[in-house]
Amino acid sequence: MVRFVTPLALAALSATAFAAQKCSTSSQCTDETYPCCSQYGECGTGAYCLGGCDPLSSYSLDSCAPMPVCEEKTYTWENLDNAVSQDKYLGNASKADWTYSGKPKTEDGNLIMTMPKNSVGTLFANNHYIWYGKISGKIKSSRGKGVVTAFILLSDVKDEIDYEWVGADLTNVQTNYYWQGVLDWHNSGNISVDGGDTFNDWHTYEIDWTPEKVDWIVDGSVQRTLKKADTYNETSKQYQFPQTPSRLQMSLWPAGQASNAQGTIDWAGGAIDWNSEDIQSKGYDYATVGEVSVKCYDAPSDVKKTGDKSYLYTNSAAMESDVAITGNDTVLGSLGATGLDMDLGANTSSTSATTSAANSIPTTNGGSGGMSNSNSSSSADSSSSTGTTTSSGSESTTSSGFSQGTDVTKDNGAASQTEHVLRGSLFAVLVAIVGLVTL
Ligand SMILES: *[C@@H]1O[C@H](CO)[C@@H](O)[C@H](O)[C@H]1NC(C)=O
Ligand SMILES: *[C@@H]1O[C@H](CO)[C@@H](O)[C@H](O)[C@H]1NC(C)=O
Ligand SMILES: *[C@@H]1O[C@H](CO)[C@@H](O)[C@H](O)[C@H]1NC(C)=O
Ligand SMILES: *[C@@H]1O[C@H](CO)[C@@H](O)[C@H](O)[C@H]1NC(C)=O
Ligand SMILES: *[C@@H]1O[C@H](CO)[C@@H](O)[C@H](O)[C@H]1NC(C)=O
Ligand SMILES: *[C@@H]1O[C@H](CO)[C@@H](O)[C@H](O)[C@H]1NC(C)=O
């Protein structure tokens, strides 16, 4: 079973730093006040209950907020008006199509995902879930040893369909899939990208995901197909096929950073060079994203449908038949709200979630969903590893009022046995807890 290692480094900004509970499918959040298990394996409220919140690791199946349904859309990048930083989003996907951490920017109509020296890069996550559909991205990967670019679909219960570019190899893109986070190192496959390298040349990468199969399509040609029928497990009588509502996530992250597990570094082609030519000339490593489009397919015909706003898990088996389409709202009232009480703090906290004292809304551990804030990637050289010990090593820093732990690896207990168990895309961002507030 996968364990999601997330270092927790709370700045001792206030005298009472709050230590977030860790969570996983085998150890759910136990405090109803902080019921949501974030994508990074920590219990909290607010952003922790939104994109990536794992219902199987949370206090209860309904702790996470309902997931906004698929929206067919084509994204271009004149500006970042449709994106908000991770700690500002409250679940209204109509207001912001994307949440991000790190330092993205736009240039010539493209999205540039940057990774300045010693940072943990950029994550761009779409707020509309996709429950079968086709995603397309025109992408130029980053380059250099240790630098990984990712374009993936990831569900809250860790079904996953990936493209990943390792900067040391600009002739291939790696593909992979997972079902409920179960590691199987036979699932990866390389696609050789013809006609120019992945850094200098535009290519179009697509994932065509239906209830029956996944196609990985590069420049219009199907290069790999996964059939659901071929994922059947005779023992468990289950299809180990990605089958739950997923978000599109694009990221750039330093897999080859020294604090990562050796297996991760090796997979990434070696230690990252923080004085790479791109860092010297531009100030950062980067990946370039052009037009991205999402096409939504119909949900399975036997789906339980009571509305058209959101997807909800109805059963902890978390298979296709355990997802309903409902009319439930997806928006939280505040950073202290959760799926259990979505209106909590609705009219008190929007402006000052981080400053209100004597307030019954749990704001600590409510801000960032275990992800970095918009300023988080600035620098990581003042390491102050408070409370960050993981077997795979990690790093944490404190800066300007935010505490951030950096973890772009995961520890799955198997990293030493195989280098192919890496799912860095899940960990493409650091953790940054806005540890400012006390109750
Ligand atoms: C969805 O909405 C129904 C009706 O308002 C409510 O009873 C239920 O608790 C909601 N479920 C979740 C998970 O929010
Ligand atoms: C979400 O945002 C849209 C666009 O700004 C707005 O019209 C709508 O009322 C918001 N919904 C909720 C529930 O806040
Ligand atoms: C994919 O290519 C990398 C080199 O870039 C290699 O290390 C890896 O073993 C290949 N994976 C597969 C499944 O062939
Ligand atoms: C099939 O299911 C069994 C029982 O859940 C599990 O132990 C086994 O690892 C699964 N096989 C694969 C290839 O995942
Ligand atoms: C907050 O909302 C409650 C009901 O939802 C209302 O009674 C109260 O007056 C509101 N407070 C403010 C300051 O708007
Ligand atoms: C984020 O960085 C900008 C400048 O880069 C600065 O003006 C702003 O105050 C910072 N915000 C926080 C919360 O540190």
Summarize the structure in short.
This protein has 439 residues and is mainly β. The chain is built from 2 helices and 27 strands.
Task: Walk me through the structure.
- With 439 residues, the chain is an all-beta fold.
- Among the domains are: 70 residues, no CATH class; 229 residues, Sandwich (Jelly Rolls), CATH 2.60.120.200.
- 3% of the residues lie in helices and 31% in strands.
- It contains two helices and 27 strands.
- The strands form six sheets. Strands 4, 7, 8, 10, 15, 16, 17 and 21 form an eight-stranded antiparallel beta sheet that branches.
- β7 and β8 form a beta hairpin.
- The radius of gyration is 20 Å and the shape is globular.
- The chain starts with 35 loop residues before the first strand and ends in a 6-residue tail after the last strand.
- The N terminus and C terminus are likely disordered.
- One 2-acetamido-2-deoxy-beta-D-glucopyranose binds next to loops.
- Gyration radius, in Å: 20 Å
Strand content: 25-35%
Q: Helix-strand pattern, N to C? A: EEEEEEEEEEEEEEEEEEEEHHEEEEEEE
Q: What structural category arises from helix and sheet content?
A: mainly beta
Beta-strand segment tally = 27
3D shape: globular
Straight-line N-to-C gap: 35 Å
- Name of the CATH architecture of the domain at 68-296: Sandwich
